[in-house]
Amino acid sequence: MNGAEHIESMLRRRGLRVTPQRLAIMQFLHGNTDHPTADDIYQAAKQKHPSISLNTVYKTLEAFEEADLVWRFAVGQKQKFHYDPNTTPHPHVTCIRCGNVDDVTGKAGDLKDAARSLAKDDGYEVLRVEVNIIALCPDCRSG
User: Are 16 and 81 found together in one domain?
Assistant: First the structure.
């Protein structure tokens, strides 16, 4: 199964209609670790589909979020939304100066354990876990 077929299958399994625009957006997101904004996604999708609208991108991202295909989270003082196709609980680190967002590696197990404990021991229904560490990235620290 090639990449496009895999994405089509993934969309169908989640009950989503497969459209060229949805395929283009998910192909851009699939495996993407840059945590793009809706505008970043729109600019990339526009390369393949010049007639796509920003509204279509937002609606598609909303459908993807409801289907648990992307994780939407806000960062920075302006609370700009970013999208992550990795929906397993994991923390992010955001540079307060340049706005770069990275995954924090090696800590996902701790978040899963904390969520499981809240559910099992304290009766919470954990919907998702969000941790965003605000920092200065190495480039901004040295610049």
Answer: yes
* pLDDT at site 57: 98
> What pLDDT score was predicted for residue 99?
86
11 shares its domain with 66 = yes
Rg (CA), the chain: 17
Instruction: Among 47-61, 99-113, 126-140, name the one with the lowest average pLDDT.
Output: 99-113
End-to-end CA distance of the chain: 45
Residue 74 and residue 7 share a domain: yes
The whole-number pLDDT of residue 119 equals 83
In angstroms, the CA 84 to CA 60 distance is 14
pTM (two decimals) = 0.83
For residue 125, what are the domain limits?
A: 88-143
Closest CA to 138 of 112, 84, 88, 102: 102
